[in-house]
Amino acid sequence: MKRYRNLAVIAVVTTISLGTFFTKVAMSESKLPKFYLKTENGDSKYVKDLTISGGYGQEGGRGLSITTDGSEYKDNNSILSDLDSEYYNLKKLNDLKKKERNFMRGKISSTQFYIDKDFAWHAEVKGGKLDGTYAHQNNHFKMYIDGLDLQNKDRYKFKIDIPGEENYSYINVEDVQLIGKDLVVTTYQNKMTDNNTNPDVNVEQTELVMYRINVNQKKIVNRKVINKSSNDQKTHTHTELQNTISESDQTIPSKFSIYKKAKLKDTVQTNGETTTEEISNEVFVFNLETDKEEPLNLSNEQKEQLKQSNVIIDKDNLYFITNGDKDLSVLKYNLKNKKVEGVPVLASKINGNNLSNYKIIDGKLYAITNIENPGEISKDFIIVDLTNGQSVFEGKIEVKNFKGKSSKALKKLQVYDFQVE
Q1: Residues 188/166, Cβ–Cβ less than 8 Å
Q2: Residue 213 and residue 96 in one domain
Q3: Which InterPro entries does the entry mention (predicted)?
Q4: Paired sense of beta strands 274-287 and 256-268, if any
Q5: pLDDT mean values, one per 10 residues, the chain (421 residues)
Q6: Contact of 103 with 112, CB cutoff 8 Å
Q7: Range(s) of the domain holding residue 350
Q8: Half-sphere exposure of 181 toward its Cβ, with a 13 Å CA cutoff?
Q9: What is the Cα–Cα distance from 370 to 252, expressed in whole angstroms?
Q10: Among 147, 345, 313, 169, which Cα is nearest to 245's?
Q11: Which residues contact 317 (CB under 8 A, 6 or more apart)?
């Protein structure tokens, strides 16, 4: 009987403690500023389904999301909500998680998904020693494939051996595409190779590898290294592969794989400091249907401009964005037609020096700018139509229910990313 009384006391104390905790949380929430995206000019339909992700306070300690309706702090409900928080940077994956919880369990990175109206596919490489560590080789990597028919809910789940995996210290999935009946998985892999000039020193080599997997046969039907680089310690020349060129949604179907290769040279100065010089910078296009690399059809002047540009892919178009003193210059390249379309478009409404984050979605440039002047802070959101360079929406993040100057609250607000569905 005494045991039951003790359990009852514990239950009452726990209930009171949790009630006190949530009351304190609710009270602290009421003191936090509320933000919202205010329309200044243009059509608000472009931001109807827009969500801005950010953090408030010291080092962005309190995560929050901002829409035209208001803001919501991510940890304002209960400690239990954090255990099942939406951590994807794409709303479509968060929605899929709610509908297909079993399929989405344990899947983290957006780059490992492919989604169309009929199927969702996921590819991941797992490996490592029994103690969870990684060595230069023999990590026992395997690729895990998981597919879901979104119409009839059939599941396709299997794992496959990776050829030569014992030679790699790192294998990560960078992109997943469905081409015909084959799943094409692009990985970024790292291994140590022998140095012919100095046997005591190994050279780190990275490779971009493409696996073509027949989902019916559940096996790899083709493996191709589409590019490789090495950090040669003798010449201090490094090559960096980048398959993750900025893309608003990496899960959508595409028959192109785009990556950027920059060659850098390190030079040790007399004072002992090392300076890095970029020797070359080139963007490569790989056609997943033809299984061939396609050179960009650019003039010499356009190639020089590309070296100074950021590259964004939006469906079947590449955009080369050059940051000027007061505006952005955007050049469009059609991957299907293999040519530049039109002339560079100036986004005069966007000051490149104040850019915080930007994406291109359906031929429009979405950008967040952060302007700080003495006594005034402005975080603006602008959408520019890249056919003519004219803005179709202009707005700014405003503060409500905050005692004091709004600039104080805006200064503590850090904007990380935004999503459009």
Answers
A1: no
A2: yes
A3: Gal_Oxase/kelch_b-propeller (IPR011043)
A4: antiparallel
A5: 48 48 46 92 93 83 91 64 55 90 92 95 85 71 96 96 93 94 94 61 79 96 87 54 66 89 81 82 88 91 85 89 84 93 87 83 92 84 93 94 80 89 74
A6: no
A7: 33-83+315-421
A8: 7
A9: 30
A10: 313
A11: 332, 333, 334, 335, 341, 363
Domain co-membership, 11 together with 41: no
pLDDT of residue 229: 78
* Residue 330 resides in a domain: yes
Nearest residue to 340 via CA among 311, 313, 302: 302
The two tokens of residue 397 are: 């993040």
pLDDT at 52: 92
- What pLDDT is stored for residue 21 in this prediction? 43
Q: Cβ(170)–Cβ(192) under 8 Å? A: no
Q: How far apart are CA 421 and CA 418, in angstroms?
A: 10
Write the single-letter amino acid at 243.
N
For residue 224, what pLDDT is reported? 94
Residue type for position 416: Y
d(CA 279, CA 420): 37
- Between the two ends of the chain, the Cα-to-Cα distance in Å is 58
Distances (CA, A) of 115 to 98, 258, 340, 355, 396: 15, 18, 29, 30, 33
Token pair belonging to 29:
């929430």
Q: Can you tell me the distance from the alpha carbon of 393 to that of 375, in angstroms, rounded to the nearest whole number?
A: 26
Total domain count for the chain? 3
